[in-house]
Design brief:
Number of domains: 2
Helix content: 25-40%
Radius of gyration: 20 Å
Bound molecules: adenosine-5'-diphosphate, magnesium ion
Number of helices: 10
Structural class: alpha+beta
């Protein structure tokens, strides 16, 4: 074994995945896409199966002080299913693995499962297995989601071409502000436990964090409208860093119109209350679980009047970089602030 020791923080999550995936060799013809997209793709004849997995760790990904277990169960399924929709595939099965400390009662885990079942019902997926073990501390939930699609309908992050239209669903930045509200109320609660949290006026943004939905409706719309996006991924890290993933894998640049980035009114107002710039929350917030995708300009009329789909810009040649055209008319390069603190020293993108 080499004596060298590299700190994880030095290369970051994406650096680590890159480094580990270098030594992976694909041996099976059915493996169409391995590491690097929202889900892996296995092709059998003209049908494909897609698989995605996620791990949620207590106090890293969720805080049970303000996360009801039922919501947590629902969210754990929704965020996985979101990766399946991001491939333009239909989710069909999930497996659920748990590591549980003795702090949790049977009833608490049943509550978690109520949320898991509700999500399975909503997304039409079957819970087909998993694993259960103990943990020394806290709760760990790992969910794997499986989906299916016709092989020629699978959409990768890598298919965007210059001239394509860049779109995003729903609205952005709300989950991040929901988190800020909950963290603020948590501090108040820890200091004065008798105070009741004031959350009613923030139910939209708090709901966006605690009970996100995967965009099943958009997947169904694509099918009905006979649209196959040229590229797609779900917005989990933040519009900015997810757009950078899409552009890197597609070898293209992008131009985003700040004025077109969808921010819900309550999100905008709450950002100002916190003295944040609303566009920064929308670009870098993360956990929105909206779909970011590109379509050929041929298909533009099919989406023009869809209220849940917003055209936010276009794909440009790689030499033009990834730029934000601000409301004030300036062009500024988009950077991946969402995970900047994990990045290499001096790496500036
Ligand atoms: P997403 O945000 O869509 O869930 P991630 O950023 O978590 O995607 O992962 C990016 C890619 O890296 C995916 O293809 C994922 O399967 C893969 N990946 C992540 N962690 C590992 C790991 N420890 N070993 C192998 N592949 C991994
Ligand atoms: Mg994803």
């Amino acid at each position: 074994m080499s004596q060298q020791r590299t700190e994880l923080g030095k290369i970051g999550e994406f650096g680590l995945i890159d480094r580990l995936s270098k030594s992976v060799q694909i041996k099976n013809e059915s493996t169409q896409k391995g590491i690097g997209d929202d889900a892996a793709v296995m092709q059998y004849g003209n049908r494909s199966t897609v698989v995605s997995t996620d791990l949620l760790v207590e106090n890293i990904h969720f805080d049970l002080i303000y996360t009801p277990l039922k919501h947590l169960g629902y969210k754990a399924v929704a965020v996985n299913v979101s990766d399946i929709y991001a491939m333009n595939a239909r989710p069909t099965q999930i497996t659920v693995s748990l590591a549980i400390s003795n702090r949790f009662s049977v009833e608490a885990i049943e509550e978690l499962y109520k949320g898991i079942h509700a999500a399975c019902e909503h997304y039409g997926v079957d819970l087909v297995g998993g694993d259960t073990t103990s943990s020394l501390r806290g709760l760990v939930i790992s969910i794997t989601a499986i989906g299916v699609a016709d092989a020629d309908k699978i959409v990768y992050r890598s298919g965007a071409r210059a001239g394509d239209i860049l779109c995003v669903t729903g609205d952005l930045g709300a989950a991040y502000l929901g988190l800020q509200v909950l963290e603020r109320e948590k501090q108040v609660y820890l200091e004065t436990p008798d105070m009741q949290p004031k959350l009613e006026e923030d139910d939209y943004i708090v709901g966006r964090l605690l009970k996100p939905e995967a965009r099943k409706d958009i997947f169904e719309f694509f099918k009905k409208a006979e649209i196959v996006p040229t590229s797609m991924l779900d917005v989990s890290d933040g519009l900015s860093s997810d757009l950078i993933h899409l552009c890197r894998q597609s070898n293209v640049g992008a131009l985003v119109e700040e004025a077109q980035v969808p921010i819900y009114e309550k999100t905008f107002q709450k950002a100002l209350d916190f003295k944040f710039d609303p566009i920064i929350c929308a670009l870098h917030g993360g956990e929105d679980y909206e779909l970011l995708f590109t379509i050929s300009p041929r298909d533009i009329d099919k989406i023009r009047f869809q209220t849940e789909i917003k055209i936010i810009g276009e794909i440009t040649p790689i030499k033009d970089g990834i730029q934000l055209h601000t409301k004030g008319g300036r062009m500024i390069p988009l950077v991946a602030q969402g995970w900047k603190h994990f990045q290499r020293d001096g790496d500036d993108d």
